[in-house]
Design brief:
Radius of gyration: 27 Å
Distance between the termini: 52 Å
Shape: globular
Helix content: 55-70%
């Protein structure tokens, strides 16, 4: 047995031995021994009951015509950049018409090998970079087909307190659940942040978890090959021995499979918790209990899951001192925008409303409209009206500054003020002021003509009005 086989334990034997020779729990003897040493029996009980024990022809469902059509439609609608081979989404349908029979045969025989993902780095809001792995469009299509079927079978087995990357669930629901715990008297939060989670997922443990749920060996083999396809960076392909590269359709589902073990353990211990992807909050009644939970759960994550808790970003604190998915809570337990959320919002609006961008007011408003529409859909559940009033006023002030700068000369500013209805003397006093655009954006003349009605006529949405509609919808449905 080679080194890879030794490290892989049960999942490797599951792929190579006949199904009749598998252990009753769907893992090999080596993996069973490891989990026994770690005390994993209780965590695996739910998985054994709810595994796909009878789904040994899962690949046929994945490769069905209807499922493939849906996968192709989703990949086309998502768009995205080309992978390592340079093929675009627009070229995918024609390629599949010519090569699909070969690809299908390779998938059925287990000989298909995904291509390396292309490494892309994007800046994180808190600093640093997030490394994404962009699969080829062909691999995105195949992964999407696998995801649609696997998610249908696996999602019902996940914890009700897990909200990330799941159909019918959202970050807003997670925030509301957290608020519910606080309302019940759980006034302390154990805020856990997993350090570089997607880069550090242990492949052997992930495949062992997969093996307890998926019995079609061809599907397991494909998942393993996706994990180990390698990364193309600076013209060189590097192997991957841990992690689930973000960027592929399957990655979120695989992350939930890994962290469902944490969910089951927290449930077994009777904790009140909410998890969204790698952000997990556990709510307790005292600081002492929080410290105890932090220590024990950190040991579980480190020893069992082979992951690392980011100590600098994790803490035991009052909920109002922490942020969760962009929100925080007031002392009276009302949802509000986290301070960093407001900072990021303003940074984005500053870029859009740059005074030197060379864009017309109409172009800027159109760009703002697109951004604000998506932003309010997510953050509209905040209950702090003053935040939305402040941001609404601040946006209009930014636009006044931009327009004042674009008017340029005193003579043009005078003409524009007069055209918009300002009396000659008031216009003259305003343009003669020695103050800069930011200060003058608050002057009576400028505010009078560049008012809320002016911007509304241009199509600029009101955050206050949008928040009011969102609040009514939230109150009516009780969730989002």
């Amino acid at each position: 047995m080679n080194v890879t086989q030794q490290r892989s334990g049960g999942w490797h034997r599951l792929l190579t031995e006949p199904i009749a020779e598998q252990s009753p729990h769907g893992v090999g003897q080596g993996e069973a021994q490891e989990t026994a040493v770690m005390g994993a029996e209780t965590a695996m009980e739910k998985l054994n009951v709810e595994s796909l024990a009878n789904e040994q022809h899962l690949l046929e469902e994945i490769l069905s015509r209807d499922n493939l059509k849906k996968a192709l439609q989703r990949v086309k609608s998502n768009g995205g950049a080309a992978g390592a081979d340079g093929m675009t989404v627009q070229e995918l349908p024609e390629y599949l018409q010519t090569h699909w029979s070969t690809l299908k045969e390779q998938l059925q025989s287990g000989s298909y090998k995904p291509q390396p993902v292309r490494r892309v780095e994007i800046p994180k809001p808190d600093g640093g970079v997030r490394k994404l792995g962009v699969p080829t469009v062909v691999d995105r299509f195949i992964q999407q087909a696998f995801l649609q079927v696997l998610q249908k079978h696996l999602d019902p087995t996940f914890s009700e307190y897990s909200y990330g990357f799941r159909p019918g669930r959202s970050a807003q629901q997670a925030v509301m659940k957290a608020q519910e715990y606080i309302q019940k008297g759980y006034g302390w939060v154990v805020d856990l942040d997993l350090e570089k989670f997607f880069d550090r997922v242990n492949h052997d443990r992930l495949m062992a978890r997969d093996a307890t749920r998926v019995r079609d060996k061809r599907v397991l083999k494909y998942i393993h090959r996706c994990l180990t396809a390698g990364v193309l960076e600076n013209g060189l392909v590097s192997p991957i021995d841990e992690g689930t590269p973000q960027g592929g359709p399957l990655s979120p589902l695989l992350s939930n499979i890994v962290l469902d073990e944490l969910d089951q353990e927290l449930t077994r211990r009777g904790h009140c918790f909410v998890r969204y992807a790698d952000d997990a909050n556990i709510y307790v009644r005292s600081q002492k209990a929080g410290a105890r939970v932090m220590a024990s759960v950190t040991r579980f994550i480190t020893r069992r899951l082979k992951l690392k808790v980011n100590e600098s970003k994790s803490a035991v604190d009052r909920p109002q001192n922490r942020k969760f998915l962009g929100f925080s809570f007031t002392k009276s337990n009302r949802r509000q925008l986290a301070a960093k959320t407001v900072e990021r919002f303003k940074d984005k609006v500053r870029i859009i409303t740059s005074r030197t961008g060379g864009k017309s007011l109409g172009q800027v408003v159109a760009q703002l409209k697109r951004y604000l529409s998506g932003w309010i859909q997510y953050f509209g559940i905040a209950q702090s009206k003053q935040d939305f009033r402040h941001l609404d006023s601040w946006i209009k002030r930014r636009l006044r500054c931009m327009l004042w700068k674009q008017w340029g000369t005193r003579s043009k500013r005078y003409r524009e003020l007069k055209r918009l209805g300002i009396r000659s003397y008031t216009a003259w006093v305003t343009i003669k002021s020695g103050h800069g655009p930011w200060r003058l954006s608050r002057s009576p003349a400028v505010q009078q003509v560049l008012n809320a009605a002016f911007f509304k006529a241009l199509g600029l949405p009101s955050l206050v009005d949008a928040h009011l509609l969102s609040s009514r919808r939230t109150a009516h449905y009780g969730t989002v």
